[in-house]
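Section 3.1: Structural characterization of target chains.
Under the original work plan, the team committed to producing a structural model for every single-chain target entering the pipeline before any wet-lab resources were allocated. The record below documents one such target. The sequence was received from the expression subgroup and is listed exactly as submitted; it comprises 532 residues.
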Amino acid sequence: MTMRTLLTAAAIISSAGFGVSQSPASHDSLNPNVVPLVIASTDARHSDAIDTIDTIDAIDAMDAMDAMDAMDAMDASDAKDATDAMTAFARFDRQTNQLPPEPWAKADPADSLYKLARDAMSRGDYKRAAEIFHRMPERYPQSAYVTSGQALYFEAFSLYRSGGEDDLNTARDRLNQLKARYPSMAKKDGDVLLTRVCGELAKRGDESCARSIEGKVYGDSGDKAGKKVPIQGLGIRTCSPDADEDDDDRIAALNALLQMDAERAMPILKQVLARRDSCSVALRRKAVFLVSQKRTAETASILLNVARSDPDQETREEAVQWLSQVPGSTPLLEEILKGDGSEGIKNKALFALSQQNEPRAAQALRDFAARESENGDLREQAIFWLGQRRSTENTEFLRNLYSRLTNEDLKGKILFSLSQQRGAGNEQWLMNVAADPKENIEMRKQAIFSASQTGIATSEIAKLYDKVGDSELRDHIIFVLSQRQRDPVAMDKLFDIAKNEKDPELRKKAIFWLGQSRDPRVQQFLMDLINR
């Protein structure tokens, strides 16, 4: 799976989570705990090869690990970029499958009903759960589950998850009752849930809820002309850039704007983005995402303005990253790359360009990769993203750029990127690099390894062994052949090396890797060696 496919899937999963589920809910739509799997997949790809060295002696183990390090060095920063991007997606929808606390009042008369309601929620049967929670106050008004506000709150939550318009209206009524009867519970969880419920109702045309959502974002103050103005405090709160709707009804209110039409939502979002107080950082980050989802003529320019002027570095970077979701933003991204912005900003711009489906975006990446005045790490990122977009222009550019470079890190990134573009003649091009005695030995080793990842014929790798004279390069080819143990051509070549190679160290390496294989000929071959 290419990086682009991975990120596109993340975007689809994230956007699909907004609103009320009509079916049993699972976990968070994109749990940030899953994000490290992006990096884990890089390690997993090498695990089979690494497992074969468990019994190898120290020197051989180091040789095998060195061969794998070539791939690790090329992948590590790219896995981090994917992680950063997916973390950004993950932040924006945390509508969890919330369950009530475990039963705590064993002797309570409503304990059995509470367990039944909780079990229904766990199965996603929210209609049934709402009915049971509603019955508890009627039958057991003095129950701890009732007097704590739990029954009323989770009745409202179950109605919210059921998703029908009547259910949502009833949920709103229940939450208003919660506020009147159990204010501490309402303040803790009820206000946020009420905002979510109102967001759904506003989407369905409820004008009072739409005004309520606006009020939560704007505040209640205004000028004499009646124009609403965002206030700086919105109450006494903990100022956390990582706040989310689970504990902040302002963020939940912003989330609700996603359900409202752009004409109504965009003025509110622009007001939020105009704020500069430290307590609005989480609001501004959320607003950046929401703006990117509203397809208007000013979407791209709003995000660019945030990228230039917001005082928070992460907010600026996210504004650039979300430009990847805005068609036609290539000129703005080019402008960012040509400016004097930070490395983080430019890195996000490179990612955003890689997501644009137009020739100009690919050309902008090529221009940046070729620009010698740019930061080397950023040029590597441009090369990586070019490798993820297979095209004749990108392939030819990367090959030509390789011949002009002296920086080994950049050259190594090109070798890796070309290995991602199968069927474009890159297999043989990589083998030509490996066979070139003028090339640095490390580049030749990386070229062999990259070519092996393209699916090049084993016979070509075996022929290369006979062409090269350098023992270090031959050692590396032996390792590459050893990773194709199911290929008879690879096994035949290892037998040939073990029998006929003049260098005793290389013979020993071939014998070792044969010993790790399941080729039926190995046992007799080893017996013949022992009895020689």
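The CA atoms of residues 485 and 491 lie 6 Å apart.
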